[in-house]
Amino acid sequence: MTTDMLRVDNLHAGYGLAEVLTGVNLEVKAGTVVALIGANGAGKTTTMRAISGLLTPRQGRVVVAEKEVQGLPASRIARLGLAHAPEGRRVFGPLSVEDNLLLGAYSALPHFFGFHGRAAAELERVYALFPRLKERRRQLAGTLSGGEQQMLAIGRALMSRPKAMLLDEPSMGLAPVIVQEVFAIIRRLKAEGITLLLVEQFAKSALEVADYAYVMERGRIAVAGTPAELRQDERVLAAYLG
Predict the structure, then answer these.
(1) What are the C-alpha distances in Å from 120 to residues 93, 101, 105, 138?
(2) pLDDT tens-digit readout, 87-144
(3) Does residue 61 form part of some domain?
(4) For position 23, which CATH number holds?
(5) Potential cystine with 11: which of 48, 60, 166, 237 (Cβ 3.0-4.6 Å)?
(6) 3-state secondary structure of 103
């Protein structure tokens, strides 16, 4: 039986006095890709931030690999096996590609003795997935193209050997041909058995790679099902797949 690698129960979160999430429930089983789709402002990115600890939930539970993590600092949640590739990529522009990748390994590896030696295996794994990053490993991250920066953001998240990964809007701001490339990468991650929660503005593309999907509306899950089920839901078709 496939176990839940990530589970969210009755999650409430917001900013200041504004409550954005009003009882989100979702689960991501080990080795699956789950898509979270919805209109702008529905609460998708807030959900990701509340799961990874960048935003402290007001109520509810977040369970990663059977450990409750809500309320813990983001650094601690990362050490427990959750990686977050945030919206907007957020690479460190003045640092080299390789230094950006090495920063991603700090949550999983010892800080001093043997760090580079143990990170070497993860570097090679990321370079095998993204040969272009290996070619540009000495280049400053800020000089990469948008698509290359997205590869770097995903690669940096993978450096921590995560049990589950959050990927927020990986296609944002990219040319259509690069979007296709990013989804090819997601398929490769899926083939490797990486557990993935994907927020994506292109609902059709997200459903093509997902095993299961949730539709968010106004801070909660409105519809859930397999991609095949959602494609037959008239409400989903009209709003997101028309």
Answers:
(1) 22, 11, 10, 15
(2) 766 788 889 999 889 888 765 555 555 556 667 878 888 998 889 999 999 999 999 9
(3) yes
(4) 3.40.50.300
(5) 60
(6) helix
